[in-house]
Amino acid sequence: MAYEMTGTVTKIAERKQISEKFAVQDFILHIPDEKYPQDIRFQASNKALEYLKPDLIGQSAKITFDIRGRGVPQKGYFNTLAAWKIEALQQRVPEQVAQVFPDATVEDDLPF
Question: Which of these, 12, 24, 28, 29, is most buried using a 10 Å CB contact count?
Answer without folding.
Answer: 29
